[in-house]
Description:
- With 392 residues, the protein is of the alpha/beta class.
- Helices cover 46% and strands 12% of the residues.
- The chain has helices at 9-15, 29-35, 49-58, 77-94, 113-123, 140-157, 170-173, 175-191, 203-208, 224-237, 276-284, 287-299, 313-320, 324-337, 359-372, 381-391; strands at 16-18, 38-43, 63-67, 105-109, 132-135, 162-167, 199-201, 247-252, 305-307, 343-345, 352-354, 374-375.
- Strand 4, helix 5 and strand 5 form a beta-alpha-beta unit.
- It starts with 8 loop residues before the first helix and ends with a helix.
Amino acid sequence: MHHFGHLAPQVRGELFHREPAAFSASSPLPVLAAALGATLYSPATRPRLADDVRKQTARGVVSMVLCLEDAIDDAEVGAAEDNLVAQLTRLATEGAGGDGDGLPLLFVRVRTPGQITALTRRLGPAVRVLSGFVLPKFTEETGVPFLESLAGAEEVCGQRLLAMPVLESAALLYAETREETLRGIARTVEKYRDRVLALRLGVTDFCSAYGLRRAPDMTAYDVGIVASVIADVVNVLGRADGTGFTVTGPVWEYFPRQERMFKPQLRRTPFTPGAERLRSALIEHDLDGLLREVELDRANGLLGKTCIHPAHVAPVHALSVVTHEEFSDAADILREERGRGGVLRSAYTNKMNEVKPHRAWAERTMRRAHVFGVAREDVTFVELLAAAVHAA
Length: 392
């Protein structure tokens, strides 16, 4: 699979200086973590779940979570498990199975450690369509049993299964317990590093602990208590020195039109007259706030995003493509870093590139360029988004 694979080859050629590279469920963890992009959540109770997965794949989705936890009622768990097994079995039967079967990276969000081994056994050979499991309310105390069950499930099925812990517990939020909780999480994920694909942030649960909910014209970074915990998570778990993990951005909750209090957050300048209708549609569906939050995610060290509506996928992916300017800077920094270092003027003549301090940024940018591609010099996110929306 590869990003923007749902676009026609001619369209990709017009948009990309370097097209997104192919990857598969068996690719190295750093590649998969960078490639997650907009991870679309879906309740496991959906009666046509297999069809939904195929449909979203055709629209450019490359990672999905099938949820047995918060997305469904407690009374529905048994029926949801049955449906999930049936739908995944159907996907495995209809496709080639494993790499190259035309499916996205599929994960199951479970409630208990026991569900991991039970579902793996029930799926049998059909487990090959799964990439792993999402582990809720993750702390050192709760996380170890989940990860031990994951290791046991790997032995049962004989294939790699990856974990995406969700950091959403109140202990991580509260000032008096945050530091020790973070240290415990760090110890746990380091012990199981070869199985942890990415860490996901459960910002909705953070807000719930204080009875908060951000409005559609505000981002997670406008809520002080949320911004502080994101900063601390990245500080401890997202370092670029080889000890860190990919941390994904929080969910954007809104998709219907809401009554606005503040002005739209999308300037007219990037939108040509022909793209004004696209700008109006983004504002009408509150996606201007999503776009701003994605930019703030990356500025704060996060990569990828949890999504609960298909309309959110294209904006997240369009903003994940590396611009020609970013690519030029990163390439210059890494080329010079192999030499003597120092300070360079950007090829775009608008900034300083200091080789050693900017090296980690350049390496991260190149990982993103590998999986999301590099836009042509005259192509902006507007053209990328318009093409993705049109294809979907």
